[in-house]
Amino acid sequence: MQVFKFGGSSVGTPERIQEIASWFPDAVGKQQCGGVVFSAFQGVTDQLISMAERAGAGDDSYTTDLGSMEGRHIDAIRKMLPSSQQSQAIAGVKFLLNDLEDILQGVYLVKELTPRSMDFITSFGEQLSNYIIHLVFRHHGIDCDYLDARTVIVTDDQFGNAEVDMDATLQNIRNHYKNRDNRLQVITGFIAATETGVTTTLGRGGSDYTASIFAAALEAEELQIWTDVDGVLTSDPRVVKEAFTMDVLSYEEAMELSHFGAKVIHPPTIEPAMSREIPIRIKNTMNPSFPGTVIGKMESKQEHIIKGISSIDNVALIRVQGSGLVGMAGVAQRIFGALAAGRINIILITQASSEHSVCLAVMPKDAAKAKKLLEKELRHELSIRKVADIIVEKDLSIIAVVGENMRNTPGIAGKIFQALGRSRINISAIAQGSSELNISAVIQQRDKAKALRVIHDAFFYGPRKTANIYVFGAGLIGGQLLNDIRDKQDWFLTSRHLDLRVNGIMNSKKLLLDEDGIELGGWEKKLASTRKQADPGALLEFVKKNQSPNTIIVDATADEAIVEWYDAFLKQGVAVVTPNKKANTNDWEQYRRLSDLARDNDTQFLYETNVGAGLPFVEAVKQRVASGDEIHRIEGVFSGTLSYLFNKFDGSKPFSELVRVARENGYTEPDPRDDLNGMDAARKLLILARTQGKALSLDDIEVENLVPEELRGDMDPDTFLEKLKVYDEAFEQRLDQAKKEGKLLRYLAILDDGTPRVRLEAVDSGHPVSGLEGSENMLNITTDAYSETPLVIKGPGAGPVVTANGVLNDILKTIK
Ligand SMILES: NC(=O)C1=CN([C@@H]2O[C@H](COP(=O)(O)OP(=O)(O)OC[C@H]3O[C@@H](n4cnc5c(N)ncnc54)[C@H](O)[C@@H]3O)[C@@H](O)[C@H]2O)C=CC1
Ligand SMILES: N[C@@H](CC=O)C(=O)O
């Protein structure tokens, strides 16, 4: 035997009711269904309450609603029943509505609405819906009776929230079924009656309660609660997109999750079914074939250690602290006694074992009253400062992580707090019952969404991780990076269990954002057509709102202005990955601060592509430093552009022509003069020196500038390339001179005991850099360990493909 219950959302429209009637027999299957409980049509109970209140206030506008209510129910009959059955059904509805009209008029005349009349008035919602639905079921060939639950459920006269006389009720229900050969009953939810027949209602979740009572009376094998979600989800799907339905939950888990906001069941209402160990299945009326969630007695260890992460918004924390609490028996009793006397509901309690403070979470509406009550109760302790001020903190949320399997499983709390800590979420209070079923943390309300996501990610993704990437600068490097991610997304997902998502792209004009990840096919068009203007502040706010565990910003611009935002992102725990050398070549303090900020906020600031593009030059220096291997000399070619120019410059093509090709190949800086003037190479040398721990600045580096003096002023790159032609001869003379000496021209960077320097040198054909080709870079490090032969790294040192690959490598290094 089964019992079903459908809530108001399931019977919101005639179409939905007809759908239920059409698949109901299949849903019952081979088993028997003894009772199906329906709530009032969606919105009807609220409308009845409003009508009652207006009538009680002497406002006759309730009559208009009465008319519309009649219209809605008659309309439903017309839509669902054939004409031959309509007049009888309409007569039944009118009969009920006449009674409703009478009672409302009575309330209107005496201008007094008692709880008793309110219960009577609200009972019409379920009477009307169930009366109509039982006719619809019959029309669909389902053999059933209409059962007004007031004839079997007996309560006391606490109107609005009446207490059920369970023994009498269960007996009445069993007798009722005995006389009807267990035929299916369509039962009014929510309503009941006193012993003397006065209508009462069962309070919040009343229809669930009705169904649970019937399930208990009939010793049902299953109670099915049909609603508008697929079951109990692991978290709120509006906040955590990846939330999914749990197959099974224990009664305790379901109650904990419901208490903390997963409003699938109202705990007291499931007690009759729970105490008889009747499984409760939550199902979706809109998705009837989905198996839903079964809530029942937990038999064995389950697949998931935690079952859900829920939250309560908008709580206030009251902190009572002071030496007066230490070792004083009875203080807790006074605190809770005072609040209980004021009928204040306490949601969470924590006390440090030092007994120096007690924290209580209450609803904000109760906070001021609670504070006053405590001040009154503890006035003596407050006056002699044995209790410091009673502090109220508002705008907080409680996050609750629930799961029976947490019991005796070490490391769960650690995982929760690590996830919160990494995302820079401050915890104001923590509570865990000794049952270890629920770990709760009080946090700022603004951090709630982030907290739910990071905890969900930590527990439910198993080996799969998600990275949320935001790219500033969609030029050569940024563009290549976006294309690479687009092309490798599937590979990362299937082979590396890594979901690489790009959630934001900003160039100098536009900003494209998508919290679910931008579909990267055609990202250029999407960026061009978005209406959002470029705005790093808006991007930061978006990141804050949607932050997930692995959030990374990539600065692929050459702009100082973007560098100014790094601090703010790092402080949010967001990793910064950049090929842009500007941040690391401003003052030493800024360089240190960025690394410190990354460390303090448990995130990373990575800039491998600042030197040698995708080659691991920075990493090599970091490794020497980390292993205590003293570096004596760094020498190499660090400019891909200058390497290319002097590797190719043999007199067969003019120098200016080679610069143009280097630019076309994507080796140069946005302005090629930043390469030719030696500053790009100087920046790179400085970055390696700083990585080594040397507090140098750009001014400390001797730089040979190859840009003719007349071309150093304001001018765009194309004009520069045109004007450079005039100087081709001068460059050729320098080449001829080197050739005459049997030497090669190479633009070297050197860091040793002398002045750090970058300059064009004529080197012997045996010099390590003499064999470089194309845009190749080379790093030679002489250290204690590498003293006889230096450590050498060589390879392509510029260009979009290798650089974007280096950026992607840095992104991957940040993923936790
Ligand atoms: N080209 C290469 O081989 C290498 C380049 N780099 C560095 O990578 C960075 C990018 O270089 P490229 O892609 O070659 O330059 P690019 O000029 O092709 O691209 C830069 C992009 O940044 C955008 N931009 C400028 N200011 C911006 C702002 N405030 N907000 C958002 N976007 C902005 C521009 O619109 C442009 O699309 C530079 O810092 C460069 O030094 C590093 C290693 C190698
Ligand atoms: N313009 C730079 C690009 C890499 O940093 C170079 O030529 O090396």
Attribute tags:
4 domains, 20% strand, 8-stranded mixed β-sheet, 6-stranded antiparallel β-sheet, binds ligand LTNE7NMQ, Carbamate kinase, alpha/beta, Rossmann fold, 42% helix, binds 1,4-dihydronicotinamide adenine dinucleotide, VC0802-like, 816 residues, 29 helices
Topology:
Elements (H helix, E strand, L loop, with lengths): L1 E5 L7 H15 L4 E6 L5 H13 L5 H19 L2 H28 L4 H25 L4 E4 L6 E2 L10 H13 L5 E5 L2 E4 L4 E3 L4 H12 L4 E6 L20 E3 H9 L11 H5 L4 E5 L8 E4 L11 E14 L9 H11 L4 E6 L5 E6 L1 H14 L1 H5 L7 E12 L9 H11 L4 E6 L5 E7 L3 H13 L4 E8 L3 H21 L1 E9 L4 E3 L9 H7 L6 H11 L3 E6 L4 H4 L2 H6 L3 E3 L4 H4 L2 H13 L4 E2 L10 H10 L4 E7 L2 H9 L6 H10 L8 H4 L2 H13 L10 E2 L13 H8 L3 H13 L3 E8 L5 E7 L12 E8 L7 E6 L3 H15 L2
Bound molecules: 1,4-dihydronicotinamide adenine dinucleotide and ligand LTNE7NMQ.
Structure write-up:
- The structure is a single chain.
- The chain is an alpha/beta fold and 816 residues long.
- The protein folds into 4 domains: 2-227, 3-Layer(aba) Sandwich (Carbamate kinase), CATH 3.40.1160.10; 308-460, VC0802-like (2-Layer Sandwich); 465-610, NAD(P)-binding Rossmann-like Domain (Rossmann fold), CATH 3.40.50; 617-798, Dihydrodipicolinate Reductase, domain 2, CATH 3.30.360.10.
- It has 29 helices and 29 strands.
- The chain has an 8-stranded mixed beta sheet, sandwiched between helices. A 6-stranded antiparallel beta sheet has the order 13-14-12-15-17-16. It has a 6-stranded mixed beta sheet with strand order 20-19-18-21-22-23, with helices on both faces.
- The longest helix has 28 residues, at 83-110.
- The model has no long low-confidence stretch (mean pLDDT 93).
- The structure holds 1,4-dihydronicotinamide adenine dinucleotide and the ligand N[C@@H](CC=O)C(=O)O.
- The site of 1,4-dihydronicotinamide adenine dinucleotide (NAI) has 30 residues, from α15 and α18.
